[in-house]
Structures
1.
Amino acid sequence: MRKVEVEDMLFARDRRVDIQNSMLEKGGNECCLACLTLNIAGEIKRTPMTKMLFDRGISEFEQQGFEVVDQLFIDEFTGCEAFWLVREEAANVKKCLEEVEDSFPAARLFDFDVLNSEGEKLSRRQSRRCLICDKPASECARSRAHGLDTIKAATQRLLKDLCAEMLSEEAYEALLSEVYATPKPGLVDLANNGAHKDMDVALFEKSAEALRPYFYDAAMLGMSACTMAELRERGLAAEQEMFAATGGVNTHKGMIYSMGLLLAGMGKALTDDDIGHDKSPRQDAIVYAAGLAGEDAERMLAAARANPDTNGAGVLRDYGALGATGHAAGGFPCAVFAAERLSYYINEEKLSGGEAGALALCDSMAKLEDTNLLHRGGAAGLEFARNRASEISALPIKERIGELEKLDKEMIERNLSPGGSADMLAIAYLLGNWDER
């Protein structure tokens, strides 16, 4: 993250004026221009968190349904900027965007300017409120009522809350995308309940909804550089929240662990202020999550020796498989692979999200040492599922869905459910939403 100097901001301001003039000239008398920047105090204007807020601003603008004639986006260290040439009455655009600026706490950091066809900037009907005391912001700015550090701290609180909320929503949507992906051999999906007699899609939906507060908390814990013990304590509470929603059925216990780790890593990556570091936020998130999981692997080995009667301890003892802990400690390789395959199927092969998810799960299942399969079918069950998945992944894409439907029947007959692979698919959906912020 690069600090801005006065000269940088002057250059950005002049460039903004040039862009506005050029776009307005293109629009003639029929169009106005809407511009989005962010009010970020201090010398760091562009961070992963400000990018998330900016993306939210773009989404809020798009939801207004304006007729956009032209648009331009800038993403630089001086801050993110968006320009929309709109065929709409300028006063109406200003009214709508003013409502957006007041719609949720962090929206106070949006700065939506609207220029009419003559290049005149429209004023707000009501003045902006100060982040600190809620008085008119212009009064506090003129009197310098609050120090820069105080304003920066208030800005960070708003950003953290918004980003944790957005990550929680993305994690929730990832769980739904996973269960809706069809066909998934042996798993609950839109076609059937797989090798499960106590689960269905509606139950997974209830479970996902119950976990939303946990996902928010996991991201916030990461933002405070939590320990594994702190995350585990919240995760254990989340398990009880899940069981309360599902009537005692274990729908997402593995996801509470794996998704919680990754969300904590994402929270940590979003607040990483190591200026000039050369890793992407995604890499930072995975590295931090892997570090926490590495600590947990040692604890898990000790617990298995002390209490060898649990399912996890039995799989660890008999097969040496650490399951979700080992996979997370290794940097989620199968989830990263599944995310790559998911992106390929959606963007290159133009498949629907559900079919793309099913194929990505198959590709991942061929590689993952799935402890759910080991627990249900032993080494033979795991080998069967992996071999069949490998065979299907080698087929032409148009033949794979039919073969997955056949494999679904086979795995239901064998009572096999690749729950670990399903977890990796859900994480793949989350990684796909995360992108490189």
2.
Amino acid sequence: MLRFNFIPYPLWRRRIPAPLKAALRPVWSAFTTADADAQPPASDPAMIDYLVRGRLLVGDDARRALDALRAFPMPELHTPPAAPTESPTAALPLRIQAQWEPLEAVLMAFPVLYPPLWASHAAMIAAVAPVARVDLLVPSAEWARLAAFYLDQHEISADGVRWISLPTDDIWIRDYAPFFGVDAHGRRAAVGAVYDPLPHYPQERDDAMGAAYARLIGAPFVKLDIHTEGGNLWTDGAGTLIMSEDIYARNPALTPDQVERGLRRAFAFERLIVTPKLRHEETGHVDLLVKLADAQTALVSTPAIPFNRDALRQASSILRQAGYRVFDLPAPPPYLNWGIFPIWRSYTNALTVNGRVLVPTFGISLDALALAIYREAMPDCVVIPIDCAAAANGGGAVHCLTHDVPRANLQSDPQ
């Protein structure tokens, strides 16, 4: 199936020769937001114009919106401190908490470059804020104010949002945010893997984000000398890590045994479950195959068509043999965006946060079935659908766009 949907990825940031990029910039700017994160609208009228061009304005009265923006205050902005001369070190390995344990906050990076994703982020903020703080990354104070104004215009309270001035290269924060856990001394700490999965794009700011955020919350930070992304790790908090075999492809210089030893130095676990990687799916992440509901229950994608049927059946079989109760979720049929980008939509790309589970939906008939299965598999959680039809074109959904931050006072051993 061929589609021509918005691409929520900074294609213009590919590493191409500077003269060619300079020549292409006027073309990009005509139909993309280009470098708007680094060059925010410089005035209130320019901000309203950005909302108008992005079809983000509530109603069609730009003059009234401008008057409202002029009276709108700047939200309080938090900035991570510079690297301290001495920082506490974590006593590895960490116990990585399960997502259903108490969370202090959920991290998101506001999609200033991608107007079609503002609505999905607003919906996630509205769903998370009543039960956990939303730590929202923005490139600058100007973007914090415009994003806060957008939420206000859509009647979404920002009372539960902590605005953080921390520029990143992109919005897929699950993959470059650090892994949080409890070290051997009972302290919350963070481990950051090497984030560099796309050699044609700059990712230095994404890779540096983990250490900066850890400084903000006062958590020790350790850099892990293994290449992987957060979307390729699930844990039950009780001794199991689940990853796809893509972890080995990300570390071609290491043997599987060396990869596992590196993981064991960082994370406390007893068994590592490795699932197959989906064919023609670019991330290779396990969160597009599996969602842990609790320590005994997993939701697994099952195909409605032959494409990737063997890999998904194998993943389901591996988890059943490992002792999990497995619920089968439908897998929407994949499609090609612009004939180049294979898009794999998945209902397992969900987030559990303090008694709620945010489930991606795609505006298709399978949504209702997926939500019903979540209600059956997670009866103690409030199931909240989040429209991710636009986000899916960037290769992810709710889980990829968020990152959970556990409370600081959790125990080193699961209760």
